[in-house]
Design brief:
Layout (H helix, E strand, L loop, with lengths): L1 H9 L1 H31 L1 H17 L17 H37 L11 H20 L3 H23 L5 H22 L15 H10 L2 H28 L1 H38 L4 H35 L4 H19 L1 H10 L2 H25 L3 H46 L1
Membrane topology: Multi-pass membrane protein
Protein name: O-antigen/teichoic acid export membrane protein
Subcellular location: Cell membrane
């Protein structure tokens, strides 16, 4: 047993996970230490306004480059990966400019249509966030491809210090939602710059020529067309699904309820970022490598799910049992309701944590169309849960409870279906391998 543990610790995968977890853990420690100070400076309503802004940019930001950055890890040839970097950067710039023009032309109409008066003064920060979001995705996926995980770890730590420290320092002078939104608008840009700074080789493109080969870019775009066709709509709808509670709570129950939800989700994102994202970022190139080498991937996915379940059960279990008490002690008495919210949010976020290996496996399984369909169902269920409770009970806590339980059940189904698909993939690969062996040796 001891020999097995020693052997595991020597594996590159384990070392990379430890690097990612260490950097993320340090960042989350900074967040955990400073968040109680921040909540006492600003209050639930300011958090609610920031939550509405984040909900909007979190929907648009991840598709700024039509999810092509996710494909950067996949090509065997570095030249093809660099083409995806160029393509992603051009799309990010184009999307940011389009959003800016839309806001110039019709910002007032959009405010009335979506009832977002609380953030009407901050709309022009959205294109800035969109650009920085795309830049961050490109930088992150490139260092994941090159396995420079130490750059991500360092960037996470320094971003937490800069962003959270700024909220405290500036908040002591100007404790309003404007401060939170301004800092949040530049946070991903800061992280992207830090990732580039901490890379060993800070230049992605080593070619001396500055001429862009649009024929080559078109070829890369078509080769990975399933990302804009299936993955981008899925990410968009998933962004809406993940952030719809903030928007619906603000619309149905006011910005204070949105603030309670925002803090609850922020706290629960700590173990998700610490464990899930760190694990997932290392798992993605690992599962891609395993598929390229002909390994059976079902066992790898299942082991990852079980490992994440064991790691996640304690932090989420504590929130479910002691949520209100913990929130009132740590963040102040006015945040006790956020602890009630967190109890129900913890159920769905736990499954979001443990299904990360499934999400990372979808490009290999050619399951991005299924993922899109599943995300649409999840969004419909989320909206129906809130509207149904508002119609019958008009109670925000019951709405959060129904949202949490229904989405947790759906995420559990996602895990089961992914394992079924991966078994089919393994059987298909094994059959093809036997046919080739019979053809050449039989």
């Amino acid at each position: 047993m001891i020999r097995k543990l020693v052997a595991i610790t020597k594996k590159a995968f384990f070392k990379n996970v430890i690097i990612m977890v260490t950097g993320t853990a340090a960042a989350q420690v900074i967040n955990f230490i400073l968040t109680p100070i921040i909540t006492r400076i600003y209050g639930p309503e300011a958090f609610g306004v920031m939550g509405i802004f984040i909900a909007i940019v979190s929907v648009i930001g991840p598709i700024s480059a039509l999810t092509y950055p996710i494909a950067i890890v996949l090509p065997k040839e570095e030249r093809d990966a660099k083409d995806l970097v160029r393509l992603s950067l051009l799309l990010t710039i184009f999307t940011s400019l389009c959003i800016f023009l839309i806001l110039v032309i019709s910002s007032k109409q959009l405010v009335r249509l979506f009832e977002i008066n609380d953030i009407s003064h901050y709309l022009y920060f959205i294109p800035v966030v969109i650009f920085f979001s795309g830049l961050f995705q490109i930088a992150e996926q490139w260092v994941i491809r090159t396995k420079e995980f130490i750059a991500i770890a360092k960037a996470s730590l320094f971003q937490a210090i800069i962003v959270q420290g700024s909220k405290v320092l500036i908040g002591t002078i100007y404790p309003f939602a404007t401060t939170l939104i301004l800092i949040q608008a530049f946070s991903e840009g800061i992280r992207a710059i830090l990732i580039i700074f901490f890379r060993k080789n800070r230049r992605i493109n080593t070619n001396k020529t500055s001429i862009i080969d649009f024929t080559s870019l078109k070829k890369s775009a078509l080769k990975h067309k399933d990302f804009p066709i299936y993955r981008a709509p899925q990410v968009l709808i998933n962004g809406i699904s993940q952030n719809i509670p903030v928007l619906l709570l603000a619309s149905l129950f006011g910005p204070t309820s949105a603030g309670f939800y925002s803090l609850g989700r922020m706290v629960l994102n700590i173990p998700t970022q610490l464990i899930g994202k760190s694990f997932g970022d290392v798992f993605y190139p690992r599962i891609n490598e395993a598929a390229n080498n002909g390994e059976k991937i079902t066992k790898i996915i299942l082991k990852a799910i079980v490992s994440l379940s064991i790691l996640g059960i304690i932090p989420f279990g504590i929130i479910i049992v002691l949520g209100p008490s913990l929130f009132s002690v740590i963040f102040g008495l006015e945040w006790e309701v956020a602890g009630e919210y967190a109890r129900w949010i913890a159920i769905v976020v736990f499954f979001i944590l443990i299904y990360q290996p499934c999400i990372k496996s979808f490009p290999i399984l050619s399951a991005q169309r299924f993922h899109l369909f599943f995300t649409i169902i999840s969004l419909i269920v989320s909206v129906v849960a809130f509207l149904l409770v508002d119609f019958i009970y008009s109670n925000d806590l019951i709405a959060i409870a129904l949202y949490g339980v229904s989405n947790a059940f759906l995420n559990f189904l996602l895990i089961i279906i992914t394992l079924v698909m991966s078994k089919r993939y393994d059987r298909k690969f094994a059959t093809e391998e036997r046919i080739l062996q019979n053809r050449y040796f039989g």
